[in-house]
Amino acid sequence: MVVAPTPLVGPPEIVKLPVTSQPPLPQLHIAQKAASNAAVAKKPASFGNPCLDLYFHVKPYSYGTAFKHLNRLLPLAWSHDPLTTLKLICNLVEGGYDSSGKGEDELFYTAAFWLYQNHPKTLACNVAPIADSFGNFEHILEMLLGIVDGEDENAKRRRLNRGSSYKIKFEDLVQKKIGKRKSEQIAKAKKVIEMYKRDPNFQLLHEQVSDLYAEHLKSDIQNLKIYEQQQLDNAYDPTQWELELTPAARWCPSVDCSFDRATLLCESIARKVFPREECTQDVSDREEEADYASRVQERLMDEVLTPLRKFMNSGYDFPAERRSDVVKEYMNDVNDAGESEIEADAMFPHEIIRYVNYRNFAELVDPQWKAMVEEIYVKQGKLKNCLAVCDVSGRMVGRPMNVSLGLGLLVSELSEEPWKGKVFTFSRNPQLLSIQGDDLKSKCRFMRRMDNQDWDGDTNFLKVFDLILEAAVNANLKPDQMIKKLYVFTSDQDFDDACGHSWRTDYEAIQRKFKEKGYGDVVPHIVFWDLTGDEYVPVAWCTQHGVTAMRGCSKDFVECFLDNDGDVGPDQVMEAVISDEQFQNLVVVD
Predict the structure, then answer these.
(1) What is the C-alpha radius of gyration for the chain, rounded to an integer number of angstroms?
(2) I need a surface site. Which of 76, 380, 435, 449 has the fewest CB within 10 A?
């Protein structure tokens, strides 16, 4: 038998107020506002699949236009594929506010509010995976507060201000008390109580959130007590059992803090951590509900939150923070254990390139690269007979440079003669060069120093194809030995800018020349990859003959490129992103 939740009573000030007629439930206005915004927004070109539209057109870097499309696309995508839409909503979680104050998570909060309006049970039943797998408890707090506030523009603005203010830390709003209860705070508490009483969807969500906190807090305080006892007994051995705490205590609202006054979460959590039937010692059986609520909230602060926060503030690193750089952790492990521990699929090409100049890992990069090439790509026959045009100019820095070098080298090593070990310079006067060097470091050094004297922001693709055709004719290659694809790795420009000519005219000339030499049916296809940014956006990928153009440099995109043998389309990219393990715990209920 399921026991109905005990009604919230709120702070003492509310209990003392005279009973008045029930006010109407708070009205939610965002749907109408979003609809009006969408009406005036210019619609981007559709992929023919609303889920793809939602993924590609609603992105943090397009912050200004993203909100204009979000609420228009959400119902369309949900009708098309509810589970995929739910995954895409959770994928909007970007991990909080950055130092510049950008509120990328606003997209998630807006989408979560839409879920609450249209599919409230689904939102409530996915509170745990949202907190544990995608964001953190901060996202859950903000989401609940947005629903209480009505998610109007003022609420959105207040949330952005919380993220951008350098004077007020978010933790202070969660943990510190604020002044006396004024009429505004009492009104907020009354509003939550009424919503909890009269809106079963809000009650379900509120209960799921407090369940999440209570479960984690009870487990954390129990584990902390075990740890402290083992320390006293000088018996703590992290190889046998290691203390792992969740951030629940850090983000649990304290009694009378800003978030608690607006949501009354602390009362609900305290009731579950200290249920009445388990804490009635030395207390009258006739204890009023309000007195019980006040007592257990004090116990929650004194016996759970304070000791956990004190320990966390002493320098404790959460497991997720300790594993923030998985690649570097792997390299350290292999460095300690030796080459026998190398895992061929542990790193992507650009990740290995990143460590080429690290003195501590100098002896590991070559065996790691060799294992990756031989155990994965050679055995699977991927990326055979392709060539790369690698931009190594001054604008290529950081990840774009590493991806250009890594994928350029990989493509050259996987090709057969006469293409094996070759790479094109990105230049108005391109050259087909044989990569020189005895190890990965020297090969990278050679590629970084490739002749760019004629570089002027573009390359002569007509000459690139002339050189390809010349090499094929000189080697007397059969048509099926012609390279299949020409990968162009560059940054900060689209294909038209890089081409510098009328591509239609050039492509017609290329087709004519290849046909004259007996290769008319096997003209290589250009894959033009602008390595700008962390996102994937296909640009002009079906408007130019013989060209697929795309942009982005995220790890998911690189993985998708390699897994699909260089054939990357919108469907593959989206599926690669939402197929990770954390998405598998999401469920659609209503």
Answers:
(1) 29
(2) 449
